[in-house]
Amino acid sequence: MKQVGTFYDVPGEYGYVLEGGNHGFESLSFILTETHPGAGPPLHTHGCEEAHVLLEGSARYIIGKRTFTVQAPYVVRIPASVPHTFMNTGDRVFRLIAVLPGQKISYTELGPNPLLKKNA
Description:
By secondary structure, this protein is mainly β. It has a single domain (5-119), classed as Jelly Rolls (Sandwich), CATH 2.60.120.10. The protein is 0% helix and 50% strand. The protein has strands spanning 5-10, 13-18, 29-35, 43-45, 50-54, 58-63, 66-71, 74-78, 84-88, 94-100, 108-111. The strands form three sheets. It has a six-stranded antiparallel sheet with strand order 1-2-3-10-5-8, with no helix packed on it. Strands 7-6-9 form a three-stranded antiparallel sheet, with no helix packed on it. The chain has a two-stranded antiparallel sheet with strand order 4-11. Strand 1 and strand 2 form a beta hairpin. The N and C termini lie far apart (40 Å). The mean pLDDT is 93.
């Protein structure tokens, strides 16, 4: 059995999903992303809080009404049900680990990533 499922949201954003309930976790799920320079996921929400662990590179975030840039190593807290997205502001692909407290991952796409309009 394959451990993680894959997804491809938008150009430059690839990922892997592990819903914890399918692998014996009682309250953890994971999303692993590979984000290319100038790319990022659509604006979206999750039904639970989320932590992003950025191990290398830099990212610009929108979380609710806040917009800010971080440099790795950095952990970003995203509250439950708050619209959010990010964009790789560096010149290399980065890998991000998202940790969510639940056996399943809820995901509601709200629209395109507004950070990417600036680069179009």
